[in-house]
Here is the input.
Amino acid sequence: MKLELVPTEELHQMLARLKQELETSVAAGAPYGALNVLYNEFIEVRNERNRRLRTDASGDANN
Here is the structure.
């Protein structure tokens, strides 16, 4: 199985759609626990990726 990276712009679009879905669910008074969990998971993955990129970039700058 080959892993493919999702382009950053596509990830931003996915996050925007997810956020809109979450806001719509909240406004409608519908249960949104699953969406909230998914949103938080996405944020954690994004933050971890950004930390790795910063670490890699700072390591490259020191070499």
Helices lie at 8-27, 33-62.
